[in-house]
Amino acid sequence: MGIRSIENVDFRGKRVLIRVDYNVPLNQNQEITDDTRIRESLPTIEKIIGQGGVVILMSHLGRPKGHDINFSMMPVAIHLSQLLGKNVIFDRELFSPRTKDVIHNLPPGSIALLENLRYYKQETAGDPDFAKQLSELADIYVNDAFGTAHRAHCSTTTVAQFFPGNKYCGFLLENELHNLEKILHAEKHPFTAIIGGAKVSSKIDVIKSLSNIVDNMIIGGGMAFTFVKALGGKVGSSLIEEDKLDIAQEIVAEMMRKGVNLCLPTDAVIADAFSNDAQTGWSEADNIPDGWMGLDIGQKSIKRFADIINHSETILWNGPLGVFEMEKFKQGTKSMAISTASATIRGAYSLVGGGDSVAAINKYNLADQVSYVSTGGGAMLEYLEGKELPAVKALEE
Predict the structure, then answer these.
(1) Catalytic residue flag (residue 244)
(2) Which pLDDT belongs to residue 94?
(3) 132 belongs to the catalytic site
(4) Helices in the chain by DSSP H: which ranges?
(5) Which position among 126, 355, 376, 377 bears the catalytic label?
(6) pLDDT band for position 258 (50/70/90)?
(7) How far apart are CA 244 and CA 357, in angstroms?
(8) pTM for this predicted structure
(9) Is 378 annotated as catalytic?
(10) Residue 358: its pLDDT value, please?
(11) Is 298 a catalytic residue?
């Protein structure tokens, strides 16, 4: 039967337990600096309260060690109230008799948010008793947290078993799976994947998996220098993973066999320290002087990569191409964002995912210029690697 959408469900008079992903970045003043994940959850919430259902939201935030006020969901409750223009009842307790009473007596159309689930070690352990207590708060379970779909935790997986016939995926989760399927079964070619970030180790599986379906593979960011060194280049003090040089060589050989156009940077913006105040210069990517490190792709690489993207019909982007948080090393990532947006406007299908890529696309105000922005980093990579996501499997009837 597979998993079922909330699209045609009538929630009138029902209490609905929704796992959302409100693991959002906070600054030192406990202010939310990027509310993308919260805003993406609104369509599911609004459908349920609009029909007279009661919404009980649960999420984690960060990795607290027990009850830590710095990881409280309180700022999220306040922000969510503002977005909805409606009071969100926030409960610092999870399983006291009072919590149950409050939730069971909420009038139709109400919203409650539970405190950070990771205050309780039973959450990450997938504890069945903890899951049963959560399930007693509601009649229906909805998972709308794609960002944690690769975690077999209590609120994402175990709790679903207590809702036979009454478990669904929310609109966000449904959209994520639909758009990732469009990538995995891309009908429009050329298909270009842009993979960046610091380390090869976290991207090996997805690179291998994508090499079966892409025409062009652009690799940038710190991880590119492991490939450059594996091919015999001099990379100075650039970030490399010595223990991944053999794997990088294997990946290059595999792509050549498969006829994938592997695009590594040919030039780099270099610096004498990992700092925006460092001295900077330019170098061929495979001939970086000792004591200097590559922190962004150079102009020749930007032009070459942009040309490939502009001639693509399907584009997947995960990971920045340089240290874009620093002003001096943002140009490569910014140009990829602009190229991806302009290719989309021309008619290409584009999906951007992973925390830093999403931050970049938002930083340059281009989120609405690409086809889809994924809210999941690890979950997205695992899905593209062909792995089964435990939270999605848990929704199957």
Answers:
(1) no
(2) 65
(3) no
(4) 36-50, 74-84, 97-104, 121-125, 128-135, 171-184, 204-210, 224-230, 245-258, 299-310, 331-346, 355-363, 378-384, 390-393
(5) 355
(6) very high
(7) 23
(8) 0.92
(9) yes
(10) 86
(11) no
